Amino acid sequence: MPHPSTRALPLPARERGQAAVLQARRRPRGRWTAAVLAALVVAVTVTIAVQSNRTADNRAVIPPRGATGDDQLLISVGPSDAPAVLTVYEDLRCPGCAQIEGLLHPTINRLQDEGKLRVDYHVLSFVDRIVSGTGSRYAANALAAAHDAGKFREYHDVLYSHPPASETVDTFGDKAVLLDLARKVAGLSTPQFTTAVKEGTHDAWINQVQHRFDQQSRIQGTPALIFNGQDLLKDPAHPLTPERLSELVDKEASAPKSPAAQPSEASEG
Questions:
Q1: Are 109 and 156 in contact (CB under 8 A)?
Q2: 66 phi, psi to nearest 5 deg
Q3: CA-based angle 245:250:251, to the nearest 5?
Q4: SS3 state at 46
Q5: Among residues 56, 184, 205, 248, which one has the fewest Cβ atoms lying within 10 Å of its Cβ?
Q6: Residue 175 and residue 209: Cα distance in Å, rounded?
Q7: What is the DSSP string of 60-104?
Q8: Is 149's pLDDT higher than 50?
Q9: In this structure, what DSSP letter does residue 185 have?
Q10: Is the pTM of this model over 0.85?
Q11: pLDDT tens digit sequence for 241-254
Q12: Whether the predicted pLDDT of 170 surpasses 80
């Protein structure tokens, strides 16, 4: 059964002007249908007005250990020299993100383990602004703390296998839920992880990731999966399935390297 369409809740009057200026750029994509290993994945994009102001966080910005990209705003998972790179934009309160992760994560994990794929994650938190709440930010902070512990992929899979029923259900706004789910990942429930979740160690970093996303206009919703400059969820001629992703990554991995990537004979030995 597909998830119900995401719908906007009315904003307070003082926020409507700011939302209009943003022209409702931020919206989760809703309603996914997918038969395991075969079916089409269809996104229905629903316009949602959001507010641009957020609670100030004057704490130091602490990126998770090993964060990459400009200003260390990405979490990269998989071999750094993988021949194929998938860039993912997602919000942990987004049901569409949970459905696409449920469909693809075994394939993504396999391709990473084979050394073919690196995934660069933009961990967003704008659903908290759309329908109010704290679950996007709390879950993103917990995921960043899991990355500190070397458990990003495992905890990421657990969170997306226990998603909120909809954007309006702020399940992850209860940090006890996040800590309880961490117990499903061997070795994650340490005092350091618990402290990071409870104190919001990476909250200011999460805000910075979202702020950078707000400054761009190319990506209009979540989930978005960018491969070689194209959003794989916006190609109706080639619906995204595990087989399709494997085909694209295998093609990239088998492509001959450009001459510039090969060491010249003069530079060797």
A1: no
A2: 80, 10
A3: 100
A4: coil
A5: 56
A6: 21
A7: PP-PPTT-BSGGG-BEEES-TT-SEEEEEEEETT-HHHHHHHHHH
A8: yes
A9: S
A10: no
A11: 999 999 999 999 99
A12: yes
